[in-house]
Amino acid sequence: MSNIILIGFMGCGKSSLGRFISRDGYQLVDTDDLIVQKERRSINDIFESEGETYFRDIETQVIAELAAQKSDRLVVSVGGGLPMREDNRRYMHELGTVVYLRASVATLKKRLAGDKKRPLLKNTNVEAKINELMSKRQSTYEETADLIVDTDDKRFDAIYDVIRKAIQ
Ligand code: S3P
Question: Which of 20, 26, 79, 99 could tie 75 with a disulfide, CB 3.0–4.6 Å?
């Protein structure tokens, strides 16, 4: 399928770049938004009342449903933890080209300072948490991606140019 799947750490710009790409005739889908719609409560509420595993199971349902729809010209922004499950990686590859938006810890730290939306960053040292999660996830992001784009200090149009050329 000719879809673009954006993966990467929280704060790497998946949703914003997704919105930018959607202006080029792609339909934007955000797995976190689908989960909020399905559950009719916020991601914070889901984590708080049901725990992380429940959230991860819904993530898998959502990405499986998307792959089953066989839609074309979607740009799919997926939650930062979604690529960590093997099934999810398979569904993403069924959907299309998987693009890792790589950002440095310094950039992520700047973007995530003061964040209130993300349960994993609550009541914790944000920099230490970013380092901890990145050390667990970075290699999976890199191995999963069909294309890796370094996004630090790059504008959306420059990032999208790289993606467009790669999928032509
Ligand atoms: C998470 C990332 C979030 C959201 C949830 C868990 C993660 O999505 O799915 O808070 O485990 O990295 P974003 O990457 O869009 O912030």
Answer: 26
Hey, whose CA ends up nearest to atom 15 of ligand 1?
79
> Tokens for 109?
């730290």
81 lines ligand 1 (CB under 6 A): yes
| Mean pLDDT by groups of 10 residues along the chain of 168 residues | 94 97 98 98 97 98 97 97 98 98 96 92 93 97 98 96 94
Residue-level pLDDT at 168:
86
CA distances from 164 to 21, 56, 147, 160 (A): 10, 30, 11, 6
Ligand 1 center to 118 CA (angstroms): 7
